[in-house]
Amino acid sequence: MKVAVAGCCHGALDKMYETLELLQRRHNVRPDLLLCCGDFQAVRNEADLRCMAVPAKYRHMQTFYRYYSGEKKAPVLTVFIGGNHEASNHLQELPYGGWVAPNIYYLGYAGVVRFRGVRIGGISGIFKSHDYRKGHFECPPYNQQTIRSAYHVRNIEVFKLKQLKRPIDIFMSHDWPRSIYHYGNKKQLLKMKSFFRQEVESNTLGSPAASELLQHLKPTYWFSAHLHVKFAAFMQHETNSKEELPKATKFLALDKCLPHRDFLQIIDVEHDPNAGDSLEYDAEWIAVLKATNSLVNVTQSSWNMPEKNGLHAKWDYSVTEEAIKEVLEELNHDLKIPCNFTLTAACYDPSKPQKNMEPVHTINPQTTEFCACFGLTDINDRIQQAKEEGSGRGECEEEEEEEIDSTGSAEEPSEYNTDNSGLSSFNPDEIMLDEEGGEEDLSTCSVDPSPDHPPEFSTSFSDIRIMPDSMAVSSDDAMDSNNEELDKSGGSEQVEEKSSTERSLKRIGGDENGNSGVKKIKRRNQAIYAAEDEDKTD
After folding, report:
1. Is 123:157 a contact under the CB 8 Å cutoff?
2. CA 7 – CA 103 distance, rounded (Å)
3. Segments forming the whole domain that contains residue 198
């Protein structure tokens, strides 16, 4: 089957789906499934905008609300993970995954589903070491800290995924697995993104948690986004025994969804021709959720997952074939995910803007039904109980949070010896949360809805590429071919030619040497729209 993979969507659903329709009209290629690797921005209303960690001037309504209200419907089944610029209050309603709109499915904090026999997994958010060992304690209304920590990856999600034994076909993460750049054309990557050099050379770019999952799961494909650059790699995994067959992962990072950006990829994936067209639960994943349910934590306390170190009576939570069989019997062997999407918030009305709408903590009926079906803890219900009982807090004290790079901060020791707080490199192609030299005003809601009529596409944009059969690349830095040439090899097809003019990237708040002109940069990968204004003026 044909699978379309998109990078950071940033709420531009109309643009994304219109691009797929363009592909079908011009090349008779119709994807069966669309995957989005984070920064989806499922914004329903003005309150959701307040829960998105971007400066106020970047809080635009975009077009998701039209799909949420039912005005429009996604023309292709869409599965996505969360990134670091999301309506966190909306996604938090679905910690185990669920429908955010008809035909648009969120994988949750971490999740595995099946479609036509293809096993698809993912983990939402980005890695920050100082929040990694905490529970999911945040809930709206968020403060300056929790609006960020809400999208930080937690060790319990990684632990759950590491209990999987059956092969994964496709896996998605928002930030890149650390070290993956050593398996592709690193020279070309640094030519396009020279400000990554220090972190690449010190091997601190990307997520160590994602790298751990990559080595454990060894999926056939791994897709990421976040850094707003296209990059392909091929990783051959080591075998644990002579009997084990060699495995390799084809990695691809996608650009963000903008004209003139190569943000969409089409790949052919082997599937089960006898499988139905419905999105399905994965029986092993459900069994793992049941097995690890006792580990659910909704406090800020840092804690480690069970391991074989003499401190835990049990450390292996992988499941038996019998446990998987029990899940199948509970569902009467019908794994189809119910189409039980429900509106849980008012939808944005362009004729009646409500700029003062406040976010509220909502328990989604989908999550309630899912937890009741499988005997799981509803995380949001537990948070609510903890708040009411005074035994926990839904938000942390307002403390200055020092976040500089994609690995975390020096405030707390991490189980990964990878913190890199001294780095000051940043991506000028991204949003910097404190680019104006002060804290965000969470009460500010600047609603700028998309125009009612979709913009006409330039005849020179190249948003889609057909993936070649092999994504294998050399790690030799002397290799002259770039990632675009990799796409062209193996009979890949480019829908449109890229513009020949290279737009210069603009650094925010800094001098020519990249030094910050405002207070210390807190994050390396925060700014996501920095080049957007230039794109719009082209």
Report:
1. yes
2. 19
3. 2-390
